[in-house]
TrEMBL record:
Residues 7-67 form the HTH tetR-type domain. Keywords: DNA-binding, Transcription, Transcription regulation. Residues 30-49 bind DNA. It comes from Microtetraspora malaysiensis. This is TetR/AcrR family transcriptional regulator. The keyword Transcription applies. The keyword Methyltransferase does not apply. Transmembrane segments: none annotated. Pfam families: TetR_N. InterPro entries: Homeodomain-like_sf (IPR009057), HTH-type_TetR-like_transc_reg (IPR050109), HTH_TetR (IPR001647), Tet_transcr_reg_TetR-rel_C_sf (IPR036271). PANTHER family: HTH-TYPE TRANSCRIPTIONAL REGULATOR BETI (PTHR30055:SF234), HTH-TYPE TRANSCRIPTIONAL REGULATOR RUTR (PTHR30055).
Amino acid sequence: MPSTRRTARQSDLLERLVALLTAEGFASFTLDDLAERLRCSKTTLYQLAGSKQDLVKEAVKHYFRGAAEEIEKRVAATTAPADRVLVYLETVAEQLRPLSRRFLDDMADFRPAREVYEANTRLAADRVRQLIAEGVAAGVFREVHAAFVGEVAAATMRQIQQGEVGARTGLSDSEAYAQLASLIVYAVSS
């Protein structure tokens, strides 16, 4: 079992793996393909994770962990409640932008990766609920039922994550999150 503590070389390899998978997907790659593309041995890949499936899951977790850190950093630098909701959802959109359609499709078809995306979507929906409740409590947002607005946001986020919004509207996941940000802030603003 790989250690959670990585060497600089392993961290670099994981970053390059994430870049490759998010750009090209992962379903069609074998471990041999990945080793060749990343210019390393399969043994080196096995130091990151014990199988291709575990490697993919680790890469997806790593991507979303980094995205969440960037999102929260930007929200922390923002004070106005409406701006915090906008910054949160627009930064989610920005973090999804580099994900290729192939990667998103592969993630939807591979349960362990899909579960990571779903868990992050649930966390994002909870965060939106919290930001809305903060705005209502501060008197900046009109008196709305924050949990309900959050639930509507969560349902939309799940539909975005599952590809339903894109299929019906032609919007990318990133574009859909940007539209959701605008809609929510408009709906709750006084």
